[in-house]
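In these records, each integer encodes one residue's backbone shape. Here is one protein:

___
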Amino acid sequence: MQLKETEILYLKKLRKDGSLPEEAIAAISQALRANALVLLPVDNIYAIAAVASGENEKRISRVVRNPRKRYVRLISSFRMLDDIAVLTKNDYDFLNRIWPDEITVIMKKKDATRESETVGVRFPRSRFLQSVIARVDRPLVFSHLYRGLSKSALYKKGDLEKACRGLVAKAVIVEELCKKHPPATIIDISGSTISIMRAGRVSVEEIKSLFFLRKTEDEES
């Protein structure tokens, strides 16, 4: 459904600590609490986001024209993670070492109907995004915006404006982030070993070393 108007907030750059002014946090948080779709940078790559729900996943899928999209939950605390995934103490220790960062982790889903069911979760590196999720107090789901059928994410200011107008209630565009950025690393810890699903900005070697440290501790306990 086309909206009559999209309110776009333009900012030059992030603050030194990676956050954004209260004005931006409040505007996006208010829209999300009203169950609206928004455009914002998710770890420096722009995406359409909403409060996590099955209906909102369908809404975003219609906007990005990807009905098979699998959604990742964005969290701002480990308390939120407790409601999403099943983890051991050593899993938590491992996640505490790698998060917050540009790493999506596939893990066993809580209250799953099938034992093999998993869920993707990310505790984002972005201080701005952490603040928004904490303010909304619910996990978010998101999808990056791509050029046509390619896997090239939109990042130019003009392309983002054109893509989001009439589709989201509010948008935050930070000129400093209107550039190409490596994708997030994706790993799977739902089994007994770690699987690297996609190499990204965070070093695979570093992630593996922390995972095997977790495994050693598990064996010793």
